Amino acid sequence: MTPPAAERIRTLPPYPFAVLNQRVRALQQAGKDIIRLDIGSPDMPPPEAVTETLYASAQRPDRHGYAGYKGTAGFREAIAAYYQRRFGVTLDPETEVLPLLGSKEGIVNLALAYISPGDVVLTPAISYPAYAAGAHLAGGEAIFLPVSEKDGYLPDFTAIRPADAARAKLLWVNYPNNPTGSVADLDFYTQAVEFCRRNNLILASDNPYVDVTFDGYVAPSALQADGAKDCAVEFMSFSKTYNMAGWRLGAAVGNAEAIRNLLVVKSNVDSGHFHAVYDAGIVALQTPQAWIDERNGIYQRRRDRILAVLPEIGLKAYKPAGSLYVWARVEDGDGGAYAEAALEAASVVIAPGLIYGEAGRQYLRFSVGVPDDHLDEALERLKRWFASRA
Ligand SMILES: Cc1ncc(COP(=O)(O)O)c(C=O)c1O
Q1: Does the beta carbon of 101 lie inside 6 Å of ligand 1?
Q2: 205: CA distance to ligand 1 center in Å?
Q3: Per-residue model confidence as pLDDT tens digits over 202-230
């Protein structure tokens, strides 16, 4: 006999992708040849210089100890240099940069740093599940801001009820967006900063896809908005920009007090990476833009392949300017039912939109992080299945 799990665990639904993974494993064990279009993880390796640096650094006897709760000074300086170069934003590497064990870790720990029972986070009604989960684990809750395709999945800050704003501590935004692929301009971030300053909130900008963009689009950072550092903290991730999802490397940057509070949580929970990971991260941050452009070009071609097939399989989508995803609407029905039928009949996994909130019920998320031959085979299977349905 063991005691029951804590209330916060018993009332937290299992992480949707963990449930989906179990289901897929069971089908694979039963001999099914499954193709996954649901996984938001790059299928290609990091730049060679990154893996070479990891290898060389790991050979050194002095690189295996604790590297400190704030990572290495060199890594923090390299992140500050990236923000200066890429966005023209100046960061103090000592007080405004904090390495993370992947951005998801920082997202949940930011909630532990700010949310007490009764507090809320504001998050778009279609968003990455960790924003609401973090609030729940901290004893608070999420209030979902309506978003829709016609508004480009951008929340309207003027529509937030003053009573909700008064209870809130954090506002989450994420552009280029998972799962919708929608983007935001600097004007949007300026409005978000104004709203957060007026209401005494942290603007939490989760920005892992900022360098995964298409058709020449260049995404901004929330920290470029005037006065952003008064209230904003941005989460950057090496997972998608440099194809390093399994490395668990990211950083929180921006408002020094938010960074300090996040460090209080983190220094009680983890002890950072070992030096070799930070050494390789420094090299990743120096990746030539040409490498990023070439990789994005591969995703863009896959995006276009998916978009071309959608009308033949009863789905409709706009062209996303960034992220790893195509967000497709089921013309006559429910995303969950569609995904279930595609899995059963075509052995293709597509993420049901409901994973990202009730407002995503009619949608499906396709990932472009899938090798070309797998993607082609999956799309052919879906076409055959859909044609045979009628
Ligand atoms: C919007 C968003 N935020 C955060 C993450 C987590 O990324 P990381 O690998 O840095 O933890 C993901 C991963 O898919 C994501 O889509």
Answers
A1: no
A2: 12
A3: 999 999 999 999 999 999 999 999 999 99
Asked if 213 and 296 touch (Cβ cutoff 8 Å), the reply is yes
| Ligand 1 pocket member 40 (CB < 6 A) | yes
Q: State whether the beta carbon of 178 lies less than 6 angstroms from ligand 1.
A: yes
Q: What percent of the chain has pLDDT over 70?
A: 100
The tally of domains found in the chain comes to 2
pLDDT for the residue numbered 333:
87
Is residue 206 a part of any domain in this protein? yes
- β-pair type (232-237, 250-254): antiparallel
Answer whether residue 1 is part of any domain: no
| Res. 312: pLDDT tops 70 | yes
Residue owning the nearest CA to atom 4 of ligand 1: 104
Closest ligand 1 atom to the C-alpha of 174?
A: 1
Which two structure tokens, joined as six digits, stand for 207? 């920005």
Are 89 and 72 in a shared domain?
A: yes
103 lines ligand 1 (CB under 6 A): yes
CATH number of residue 366's parent domain: 3.90.1150.10
User: What is the extent of the structural domain holding 320?
Assistant: 7-45+289-389
Last residue of a domain, one of 252, 284, 316: 284
